[in-house]
Amino acid sequence: MIPNPDPTQETLVLNMGPQHPSTHGVLRIVLKMDGEYVLEAEPILGYGHRMHEKMGEVRNHKGFYANVGRMDYGGALSFGHGHVLGVERLSSIEVPERAEYIRVLTTELNRVASHLLWFGAYLLDLGAFTPILYAFDDREFILDLLEHLTGARITFSYFRIGGVCCDVDDKFLDGAKIFVKRMRERLPMYHKLVTGNIIFRKRAEDVGIVTRDMALKYGATGPVIRGCGIDYDIRKTEPYSVYPDFDFDIPTDDKGDCMSRYKVRMEEIEQSLRIIEQAIEKLPEGPVMGEKVPKKIKSSGDCYMAVEAARGELGYYLACDGTDTPYRMKIRSPSYSNLSLLKELTSGILLSDLVSVMGSLDLVIPEIDR
Amino acid sequence: MSDLVNLLFTPPLGILVAVLLVVVFVFTNSAVLVYVERKLCGHIQRRPGPYEVGPFGILQTAIDGLKLMGKQILIPNGADRKLFMLAPILSFVPPIVAMIVVPFSDSVQVRDLDIGVLFVLSLAAVNVLAILIAGWASSNKYALFGAIRAVAQNVAYEIPLLISLLTAVLWTGSFKLSAFVDAQTGSVLEGANWFVFTPWGFVAFMVYFITGMAETNRAPFDMPEAESELTAGFHTEYSGMGFGLFFLGEYTNMLLMASIATTLFLGGYHLPFVTLGGSGFFIELMQVCIFLLKTYGLIFIMIWIRWTFPRVRFDQLMNFCWKFLIPVSMINLAVTAIVLKLGEL
User: Fold this and answer.
1) Which of A12, A137, A350 is opposite residue B315, by nearest beta carbon?
2) Interhelix angle B116-124/B240-265, nearest 10 degrees
3) Separation of alpha carbons B252 and B32, rounded Å
4) For the ranges A75-79, A90-94, A177-181, B5-9, which has the lowest average pLDDT?
């Protein structure tokens, strides 16, 4: 090491990850530090890369479907939704209305579960151990429900091209109703325990401010862009599936700090509950699987299908050449764009704030390193 | 029989026996507290806590202790071996030594030093040295960060801690711990008997309690070992009993902090309404029970706070100390001095 002539200008390189409690996975961030202050944070990806996009190009549509849930362990159903909708659009497959309603119902339940997971993990990052267990209590309820319906708890492979694999029963619908009621009772408790807490507010307010320009420049989506006042939600801006049938709001907040993203997500839980309630009420009768779905789904042409996942815009770009396997597949995952904000957000802030900012971006690493 | 008692409890053998008893008490306390904390936090978090080992899981600590003892103590490459081994001992021994001046009852007290408060403070200050040594000797950047934070935090928080204790000293006019207890006898109906019942005493107690939590590095002030930021802070590289001793040290520090608070502010082994007069085995037993009840009550509050609140940020922590706690405690000290002087006139 070459001795630095000016010791006050000396910086320390701190390797945060790939094994670190608050990177939530195998993300590595190389921090250049001046004391407690972060001068530069450089995320380094690739520790969990599994070539999902390449796998999409060698497997047929049905074969690849099992992969989608593995990308985002938080909200696997949204990832499935985007994929099946993309393939259905390319191959002009009709989906029964009941199937679409069930898709929306389960996806929204999954979104709530994902936000609850984030809520707990974020508070854990800030040093509060208790909220995650409360959040997991509620999340467990959702997972039990979805397990009853789909047979899986995390990596659901429930949707099929042309419908869903099995119909919902009364037990599931009653359970979902009970959950909505229960969650509405629990949310005020969360706000009482966490939102008003002075220590939490000091850690989240005015920390990691994302401006509108920054959010647009980096292509941030989801609660990150809604947290800085832009009501960009694919469910409203480019409506897909049966979302136009539902009455729900897109929560936004103007400040762009960690607290805004927190508030937006907490509000989104309530909006998702509204959608779940309406979906149960409006659930039409009929089949759950299209009748004319071919065994070998051949498609040609290309399409970009975007859906609103729990973390933001999820896009599948599929280019097909007439066979049942895409010629090219590109996935636009929300956390990847949101992570790219990190470098600009964290220059010159404290190490503790870096943890808070990272938590508020709600990063899911397997989805970044697909 | 009484000859044997006399032999065992009078110097020179008496001192040895008493010190041994304190050590036994401290170890038992740590073992019980680890279990109690885990059980309590379990119930706070809607889960049962340890329940597998023994009835209600009470043997969990013993099993954990055995596990820690069975583990290899790894010393990382490039670590300063001597200092690395010294640090856990430095963190564990001083609070035990400090416990010898704590009065559990009229006669259950190993040594009633004239400089009791100073003795406790000086030994409690060794803790920061232990953390600094641990962080430096580990040759790990996370550990070093933890150590730097610990030094800044403990040096800052020692000042309001000292001033709040000085307020109590001013009120009593003595450094002797038994003098504090004696000054807080009598019934509350005849006037404020416990120091905490006076307005300045209450402020001093609150300042002491907050700084005490910071001094023992408990959440929400657990900066030196902030898990989500520094993995485990200063004890990142410690395994086996090296970590175990830091762990025991933390619980002993909690006990010391709570028992000093009880002695100085909460009337020691006295009840608020009646004075337990006389002597005898049962009176002494009652006094010890009252003392322990108050002490563990305080520890319960500390555990409760730990499992409820998020961690404060480092600069907020320092701001809170320098811009709030120190001015408040200084004003409080001045007010106490003026009030006492006016009372004398």
Assistant:
1) A350
2) 150
3) 11
4) B5-9
Could you tell me if A162 and A289 are in contact, meaning their C-beta atoms sit under 8 angstroms apart? Answer: yes
Q: What are phi and psi of B252, to 5 degrees?
A: -65, -40
Helix (H, G, I), strand (E, B) or coil at B270: coil
Which of A35, A36, A133 is the closest to B45 by Cβ?
Answer: A133
Confidence grade of residue A4 (pLDDT, cut at 50, 70, 90): low
Question: Distance between CA A180 and CA A172 in Å, rounded?
Answer: 12
Contact at CB, B229 and A351, closer than 8 angstroms: yes
Residue A199 is predicted with a pLDDT of 86
Residue B329 C-alpha, separation from nearest chain A C-alpha, in angstroms: 22
Over 60: is that where the pLDDT of A2 sits? Answer: no
Q: Could you say which DSSP state residue A219 is in? A: T
- The dihedrals phi and psi of B143, each to the nearest 5 degrees, come to -65, -40
Write down the pLDDT at residue A112.
Answer: 92
Please tell me which residue of chain B has the smallest CA distance to A15: B141
CA–CA separation, B165 and B207 (whole Å):
9
Size of interface A-B (CB pairs under 8 A): 79
Report ipTM for this prediction: 0.78
Element (H, E) at B86: helix B81-98
* pLDDT surpasses 50 at A203: yes
Backbone angles phi, psi at A42, to 5 degrees: -115, 105
Instruction: For A79-94, write each residue's pLDDT tens digit.
Output: 888 889 888 888 888 8
The minimum CA-CA distance between B78 and chain A, rounded to whole Å, is 16
**For the whole model, what pTM was predicted?**
0.85
Q: Given this model, what pLDDT does residue B167 score? A: 87
Check if B80 contacts A (Cβ < 8 Å). no
Could you tell me if B215 and B127 are in contact, meaning their C-beta atoms sit under 8 angstroms apart?
Answer: yes
User: C-alpha angle with apex A278: A70 to A292, nearest 5 degrees?
Assistant: 60
- Which residues neighbour B166 within 8 Å (Cβ) at sequence distance 6 or greater? B333
At CB < 8 A and 24+ separation, what contacts does B294-302 make?
B294/B262, B294/B266, B294/B267, B295/B255, B295/B258, B295/B259, B295/B261, B295/B262, B296/B258, B298/B209, B298/B258, B298/B261, B298/B262, B298/B266, B299/B33, B299/B254, B299/B255, B299/B258, B300/B40, B302/B213, B302/B218, B302/B254, B302/B258
The B residues from 288 to 317 touching A (CB cutoff 8 Å) are: 307-316
When mean pLDDT is compared across A149-158, A184-193, B270-279, the lowest value belongs to B270-279
